[in-house]
Here is the input.
Amino acid sequence: MLQQLLDDLRGYFESKSSLTETEQALLNWLKEDIFPLLTLQSDDLAQKGFDVRRITAEQMRRLARRITENYCQSETSVGENFWEKLEEMAEVLRLPRYPRCPACDHHRTIFDQHRGVLRCEVCDQTWHEDLYVLVEFPDDASYFEENDIGYPSFDSKDNGARYVPEYDYIRHFHKDPAEIAYYKPLRWPESQSYLFPDEPNDAVDALCEPVSDEKGTADFGEQAVWVPLCNIKKPMI
Here is the structure.
């Protein structure tokens, strides 16, 4: 891929009738017998469970330099053990990874763009990053309260009920949540139509709950509201 790009650039400059001084210098460089042996793309890191959405171009350059230096200083041929070296060097640079799978605890987590979910390539478990589960009787939410995971619900008949991230729910209970238990915290102004509906709907309004605890207000802002996923008027995932 990189070699093709260099060849295309060389052909582009050679086809021009006149070149600037800078362009001529680039063409001279492209004519040298230099052939790239290895390229590094963000997709390579994504395949090893790294969160490429949070990795900068400068971090990618540092990683590429580390891998190149490693090959130059060792007797390992280019391409040999590439994936092991890639993961090893990325770990050394502390590049951000997706969390381990909540079901099997493996690091083979990828972001499935088509489905908008994180997915484990080992056990195929999926989960959303921005959805919460209302944990209430018969499930026991005490573990989450003791570990300050999630946010309290004051509208539930269960005084200990909490909204917890889907990831933590799966990790603790070892099961997928019920579809009716999914909630999404909507911030202002998206929350306006639920806090002040033009056409009140008692069935829907009863399921929505304003975010009123101190932690929730700090994280989601004033006038945020917990809305059941099935009642969100527009796709928000």
Summary: The longest strand covers residues 182-186. Residues 128-231 form one domain. The radius of gyration is 25 Å.
